[in-house]
Amino acid sequence: MKRPVIGVFGPLSDPEVRVLAARLYNRGADPWIIDLARVPDQVRLAWSGGEMLLGGRSLLEVDAAFLRRTGRTLPPGLQPGTNIPPLPRDSWDGFVAKAAGALALEHPRVALRTALLTTLARHRPVVNPPHLQRLHRLKFLLLNRLARAGVPIPESAVGVSPLVAGQDPDALVAKPLAGIYKTRLLHPEPQNNPIPPFLVQRRVRGELVRAYVLNRRVLAAARIVFGTTVDSSESQTGIAPVHLSEEAESVALRAARAVQAPFCGLDIMLETDTGRCFVIDLNLSPMFAAFSRLSGRDIAASLADHLLDLAAVRIPFPRRPALEVLEQAKELLAAEIDRNRCERWSRGAPGTRGTFQEARGTLTKAPRWPEERN
Amino acid sequence: MPGRIVAAIPPGPGRTRWKSYFSHVDQDTCWLDRASIISNARAVLENDRLLLDGTDLVTGTVGLLNLDSGYMWPLPLLDPDQATWDRWKGRVADLLRNERESRSFWLSLLEILEECVPTCVNTQEAFAWEAMKPAAFAMLQDTDVPVAPFLAGNDRDQLAEFMHERGSVECLRRSLAPGAPLQRVSNRQEVLENEPILVQRVDRGSLHPVWVVGTRCVTPSLPEDMLHWCECHLKAVMNSLGLRLSRLVLARAEARPVLLDFTSSPDVAGLPEGDAVQVMEATRRYLVEGAP
Fold first, then answer.
1. Domain boundary among B64, B97, B122
2. Is the N end or the C end of chain B the one with fewer CB atoms within 10 Å?
3. Among partner residues A105, A115, A161, which is closest to B132 by beta-carbon distance?
4. Which residues in chain B touch residue A122, judged by CB atoms under 8 angstroms apart?
5. What is the maximal distance between C-alpha atoms in chain B?
6. Is the complex ipTM more than 0.90?
7. Low-confidence ranges of chain A (pLDDT < 70)
8. How much is the pTM?
9. Does B138 share its domain with B176?
10. Domain map of chain A by residue range?
11. Closest Cβ opposite residue B108 in set A105, A114, A141
12. What is the pLDDT of residue B193?
């Protein structure tokens, strides 16, 4: 019996990657941890047609995948938020060369990693696919989509908006648009605020609840216990598991549906004065390892089960007898697709076949029918 | 002219040509200038509204002409004068962060517009595919569109094998950076020592540029086999990649027409005057009337 191969994209140093890989392994799956930050420096890549070889192994061995991180977008020394001391003018040119070099390399590398993931997502289920993950860096687009879908968000603006004029300085917060730095109070002196453009949002006072949605269900929710800081992560001391009210649960599910996210973590503010709830953030690659440890709700286990369900659509898997009929149908379809692709390869120019195809292996074989896999 | 077009085109001779043409045909146009909008905060995004200098950008707009890939550099990094230096020297990390923030703002603005106005040339999806050429070619191949044989990556052995030129075949390479130009492979070693690249193999001297608006080819003269290729595959290429205006490059591989390249931000500056007007008129009609 073939063990399902579940791709987990992210570095082994990431707690979410480690805990998910462990849950998958315990459930009989074969987790394949792929750190895309190592592509292309430490991993050889060859991609021809629809076939992608990473270090000699076909990426299409993956039956389903979880995308935690695409790969860092800047080298460690240049990570935003790093406390780099002011540079003297004469060292600027050297810094420019370093920064420009890093950025010049980074754009094609990120494009390459995203291209790999996008192609994988066309052939296999990926949670969450890269076209959704990009919303993490496009916060206003994300908020706008929520607002247009009728999901309550606090009044938000970028630029010189009437929202900002004449407001109590304690009533507004400044937030990043690309999700990099911490939320802070909007300062009356512009030089103390982030460099524009940034997001200005009405500050909602009340309880902050973190909720996880997976496959159109709320998995878990907990109140975030934190001090007096505007950004909860700067003074968080713990969490207290809660049951979401009917309204809050409906808001969470509508928000996930509005951005079509199979898995997400939402920050919901329950406003003390009005009793209303607002989505203040929606994270498409949320951290869950610490939350699980503190709340006792094993998010990784649910995620692993979901990924195995998705993989079961591709391969017969004894844990899912109810899906057997569906699996057989999908198998026949997959085999048919394989067969068509083999034929297309064989019709192609002679030059397209050769050592690459031999190394790639899978498509040079006859189509795999379900009984062969058993 | 009925309806307004919102246009985002990078500065240069191409934008000058578009401006001149829209002015000539009296087309109501609102020009989005990335630099001034970001630095002067002229645009305001509010919950579900977009304002530019106080005017609602969505109401009354019939189409978005977006030929700006959104690629940008952190401006203060270029070559700061003393005043700029004094202002920024303590905020080096902020400079790097700001490139992403500005990019996020600009792309959000354009994508919200795209989602709210009736027609769009070109979509963000098209720009995404342009930045992922190997993924785009693999996807087209899966939909039975003949594309030039390609290999992407940094595996030296595979690249060396792939680039082994035979007879009339030539190889073209490009960096995987968005918008990188195609170059003929002149020195195999030079290619192998670089970053991951995309290499494509076609018959020597067989390249033909083709301008497409909507799903209609507006290039007047093409060889018979390439015209036939267009009839069969143009619709699939443009729809699959979210393209509405593009300059495709067709070539031949093993004597059969194939797609070698596409661009989501084609520049009309290099076209003869008559051809450029034809492309711009077809694009304007597409935006205003929703037809090529």
1. B122
2. N
3. A115
4. 139, 142
5. 63
6. no
7. 1, 72-104, 160-167, 169, 180, 314-374
8. 0.82
9. yes
10. 5-128+310-373, 136-284
11. A141
12. 53
Looking at the structure, tell me whether residues B239 and B132 fall in a common domain: yes
Residue B145 has pLDDT above 80, yes or no: yes
CA nearest neighbour of A114 among A87, A133, A140, A139: A133
- B277 within domain boundaries: no
Is residue B281 assigned to a domain?
Answer: no
Same domain, B141 and B77: no
Rounded to 5°, angle at Cα B270 from B265 and B272 = 125
If you ran DSSP here, which 8-state letter would residue B147 be given? B
Question: In chain B, how many domains are there?
Answer: 2
Shortest alpha-carbon distance between residue A161 and chain B (Å): 6
Res A30: pLDDT: 94
Residues B137 and B233 in one domain: yes
B49 compared with A210, residue with greater pLDDT? A210
Residue B141: CATH number of its domain: 3.30.470.20
- Chain A 345-374, residues with CB within 8 Å of chain B CB atoms: 348-352, 354-356, 359
For A186-210, give the DSSP string.
Answer: PPSSGGGSPSSS-EEEEPPPEEEEE
pLDDT number for residue B77: 53
One domain for residues B179 and B245: yes
CATH number of A136-284: 3.30.470.20
Please determine, for residue B195, whether its predicted confidence score (pLDDT) is greater than 80: no
Inside any domain, residue B26: yes
Are B107 and B181 in the same domain? no
Query: Least CA distance to A175: which residue of chain B?
Result: B101
Q: What pLDDT is stored for residue B240 in this prediction? A: 93
| CB nearest B158 (choices: A104, A148, A356) | A356
Predicted local distance difference test score (pLDDT) of residue A10: 94
Residue B290 counted as domain residue: no
* Domain residue limits at B199: 128-264
B216 shares its domain with B106: no
Beta strand spans in chain A (E): 5-9, 30-34, 45-48, 51-54, 57-58, 64-67, 126-127, 156-158, 172-175, 184-185, 199-202, 206-214, 217-226, 236-241, 263-271, 277-283
A180 neighbourhood in chain B, CB within 8 Å: 97, 100-101
pLDDT at B243 over 80: yes
Measured between CA atoms, the residue of chain A closest to residue B196 is A40
Give helix B124-131 / helix B133-142 axis angle, nearest 10°.
100
pLDDT at A185: 82
CB-based contact B203:B107 (threshold 8 Å): no
pLDDT value of residue A340: 44
CA distances for A120 relative to A127, A228, B3, angstroms:
11, 44, 41
Q: Tell me the mean pLDDT in the region B74-98.
A: 62
Q: How far is B280 from chain A (nearest CA, A)?
A: 29
CA distance A351 to chain B (A): 8
Same domain, B110 and B170: no
